[in-house]
Structure formats: structure tokens, C-alpha cells
Amino acid sequence: MSSQRSAASRRSFAGNREGAGFVASLAFVGLASVRDVYLAGLFQRVSPLTVASVAFALCSLVFLPIALGRDPASLRRLLARPRELFWINATSALAWISFFYALRTIEPLLVQILFAGVGPLSVTWIDRWVPGGAATVSLTRVERSLQRGVLAALGFAAVVALSGRSGIGPQPVTTAGLGVALAIVAGVSISVNTTLCRRLNDAGVDPAALMSVRFVGAVVAAAALARELPALLVPGTLAVVVGASLGLIVLPNYVNQVGISLASPLTVRVVLAVGPALTFLLQLADGRLSSSPYSLGAAVLYGVFAIWAALARRRAISRAAFA
User: Fold this and answer.
1) Which of 18, 37, 126, 162 would disulfide-bridge 282, Cβ 3.0–4.6 Å?
2) Closest CA to 212 of 105, 88, 49
3) Where are the chain's structural domains?
């Protein structure tokens, strides 16, 4: 009887963690959609590197005292893994700097589709490539078909951007192509980063500890490349950048880190799939971009296939566990 109660308690704990992770991921999607729409406009007048330097420096300034005060052992466990920490910093820098410049270049909705869409396509080889990643299960025939659907949605989003039918309107193909490429590079980098972060979370590293040192590489890279940091001496500019950084970059990244630490990667990917549709609505409210039925079509197509593919993956893993 006691063993049954213990098993039931473990299932309840796992279910509570998964539910809390789902809520955190859902909150992140809302914050991220606001972030992408607002930053896309801000980046037209402020360099993405300037914002990255401030935002990611604030991540360390805010979370390092929290990590030291709440759970210094967690920070020590993290610092004892210098190889993983290096790659987390490298992939964070590549992902976010590429992502910010993609937002400056093409429609935020399309950036989000390409950025998030690479994850479901790359999950199998990332889990296999990253040591200590989740156990992999061969893709079923249904999953392969669904992943082709996700790939088609990404291709359609790229065509919308390249053909000038997005909410931004016509733009040089080279400019749109650069934006598409940057969004894809950012998506692959953040997928590897998410897998590495989840591995450290499972090893007992607290999200606050990870946030305190995760973006040091991004700060160094952005500050080294930036040419507009003196613009922060203007009080109005400094206030806008700091406010946007705290509310739309630091906070969402922490909420996302909590979601990653609690929920399964598949749950996170399912929730992220609804982001582009929400971003479309926020773009309409913002009014800076026009409404594009092609962009909306790409968002819906991507959302349907991404959610369906993630659920099919969950079923395949469950069947393999009980086989």
C-alpha cells in the first residue's frame, strides 16, 4: 500500500511540475509576442547590439544576487560544468543577436515562425547530438509526414517574406533573404541552447543561477560589435532601452527558463506554436505593419502542424516507454 501511495505521490508531483511548466510557457509566449512586436519597431531607431548589451548585462545584474542569496550551491554546480556553460553562452549569443537582427529586417510574425519552427524539425538530431539529451525514439511514418508539413509551413513563411507579401510589404530580396537566414540560425541555436539548459536543470541547477551567467557571452559579443553605446548617455534613450530590456527581455527569459526547467521540451514546443498567431493580433493592434493574409496563413499552417507533430512525438515516446 505504501508503495502505491509513493507511486501516486510521484505521479502527482510530476503532473504538478508539468502543469506549472505549461503555465510558465504560456506566460512566456504572451510576453514574447509583445516583445517581438515592440522590439521590431524599436530596432528601427536603436541598434539591436545596443539593446542586447544592456538587456543581457541586466540579466546578470538582476539574477546573480538572487542566485547567490537563494541557492549558492546551485551556482557552484553550474560553474563546475565549464564546458556546458561555454556552449550555453555561445548558443545564447548567436541565437539572440541573430534573432534581434532578424526582427529588424523582416516581419516579426515570420521571424517567430522560422525561429520556433526549427525546433520541432531539429529535435531528433539535437537530442542525439547533445550529450545527456533526452532519449530519442525513431520517428514514425505519421511524424515524418507531419514534419514535412512543418517544413512546408516554414517554406511558405520564407516565400511570403521573399516575395514582398508580408506585413512589411515589398523589400529587396537580399534584405528579406538575410532576415530569413538569421531567423533560422537563431532557431537552431536556441534549440540547442534549450536542450543544454534542460540538461543543467535536471542536474540541479536553478533557473536563477542559469540566468545569472547564461548571457555573459552575449554581452561581450554585443558590446564588442556595438558602435552606438554612447547613445545610451541620452536620458530618454537609456530609459527606453532599460525599461524594454527589463520588461520584455529579462522577465520573459526568466519565465521561459522556469518553463523549461519544469515542463517537458515537447510541452514547451506545443505552447510556443501558438505564438505566431498571437503576434499577428498584436501587430494589428500596434498598427506599424499592414495586415497580410499570407502571413496569417503561414502562422495558422505552422501552428497546426507544429502542435500535431509535437503530440505525435509524445505518443511515440510513451509507446516506446511501455514497449
Assistant:
1) 37
2) 88
3) 16-322
